[in-house]
Design brief:
The chain is mainly α. The protein is built from 15 helices and no strands. It is globular, with a radius of gyration of 23 Å.
Length: about 400
């Protein structure tokens, strides 16, 4: 017994040491080297431009990322992975360390310049378009307010917002309260939105695991909250993905509690931030069909459709400008450094007769359309196959409940 307590105390010490190391790495490797206070007046910067493409800068970046993931792995393998053997008291201490670590990592990265990602400035610009200029970010474009002090920081100047109304409402509210503050303060305000989404996501991950797999609660919470990439993209880059994942995590938690209407509404709210959570809706419906039976399922579907539809209508109303409001093709312009870019360079000479690799996506409509629609079809077929497998598994479980 004494040996077991000592071993678990060592595990907690390992988690604490890894957390301290990650905090220092985030500070000295990123926040201090790429300070928002120092570089905040520079627009559209990368780690390369901030370090003048020096070898030292590259070594620091690669080394810091590598060290972060080493600490993350050590914390998992030597700290929380044997968590099923923890006593309830040690579980609480371990969970407290995980939460404290997540808070510290985000706080350390808040004052970092969002290098390699100008998305947060696009969010701010579209919030300002609403709050200061009375424009519709889902119809109008930043180029219409080129005199705004944030305009030079924006990357997508001729493209309407690709996000849903729920996010644009959050942006509107955030800018309404911060428009008179400094540029860096506004950046941090939007980063805090992302951090809030991170916290809510972690909360519902933990609650879901407590509901369906309590022995994995520590591991699951740790793997999300201490993931260096999640922290870097959230507090470092200020990306709004965590606002979407918060809705998805709530939908999964509600599904684990068999609150099917609430689960559906959580997914719908996520769709109103970004469209990815739409993939959850058929899964929720299939699980509900298995548990409720046809008659009760029809009632669930009707209630969900009425409430979800009402929420969508209310949120879209301030931004509605016709059916184009719902179109997602605008995202076909929003890639510059991905596999899709490489594929477009290969397809441009064949489909558009263009050989200049610097040609924009707008000027290569055929290759752009093939990539946008072709990848959607491929993914749709794969997703359909997974839904069929889920349906068959549900049927098998219904016929053989034991």
């Amino acid at each position: 017994m004494r040996f077991s307590i000592r071993r678990h105390s060592i595990q907690l010490a390992v988690v604490a040491a890894c957390g301290a190391a990650i905090t220092l790495l985030f500070h000295y490797g990123f926040a201090a080297r790429y300070s928002l206070a120092e570089f905040g007046d520079r627009h559209r910067q990368s780690f390369g431009t901030l370090t003048r493409y020096s070898n030292e800068g590259a070594y620091w970046f690669i080394g810091a990322i590598f060290a972060l993931f080493v600490c993350y792995a050590l914390g998992y393998w030597l700290g929380v992975k044997p968590s099923p053997h923890f006593t309830p008291l040690l579980r609480r201490w371990a969970l407290a360390l995980i939460v404290i670590g997540g808070v510290m990592f985000n706080l350390v990265l808040l004052p970092m310049y969002p290098a390699d990602a100008s998305d947060v400035y696009d969010y701010i610009m579209r919030g300002r378009m609403q709050a200061l200029y009375g424009l519709n970010p889902m119809e109008d474009v930043p180029q219409q307010v080129a005199g705004d002090p944030f305009y030079r920081f924006v990357s997508w100047r001729r493209t309407p917002s690709a996000y849903g109304p729920a996010w644009e409402i959050l942006a509107h509210v955030t800018t309404t309260f911060t428009a008179d503050t400094s540029r860096n303060t506004q950046v941090i305000a939007y980063k805090l939105l992302a951090v809030a989404g991170y916290g809510v996501t972690a909360l519902f991950i933990a609650l879901t695991l407590r509901q369906i797999a309590p022995r994995r609660l520590l591991v699951g919470t740790y793997l999300f909250m201490w993931n260096p990439l999640v922290i870097y993209m959230t507090a470092g880059g200020g990306h709004n993905d965590t606002v979407m994942t918060a809705c998805m995590a709530f939908a999964v938690y509600a599904l684990s509690r068999r609150w099917y209407v609430a689960s559906t509404l959580g997914a719908v709210l996520g769709v109103l931030v970004k469209f990815i959570p739409a993939l959850l809706l058929p899964i929720i419906a299939l699980v509900a069909l298995r548990d409720l039976g046809v008659r009760r399922w029809l009632r669930y579907a009707l209630v969900s459709a009425l409430i979800g539809g009402a929420v969508a209508v209310v949120m879209y109303l301030p931004y509605w400008h016709g059916i184009d409001t719902l179109r997602t093709e605008r995202r076909a312009f929003m890639y510059t450094g991905s596999v899709a870019t490489v594929a477009r360079h290969w397809l441009m000479p064949i489909l558009d007769g263009v050989t200049d690799l610097s040609t924009s996506a707008r000027e290569t409509p055929n290759s752009r359309a093939l990539l946008a629609n072709g990848t959607l079809v491929i993914f749709g077929l794969y997703y359909l196959s997974q839904l069929i497998m889920l349906l068959l598994a549900n049927q098998a479980l219904t016929l053989n409940p034991a």
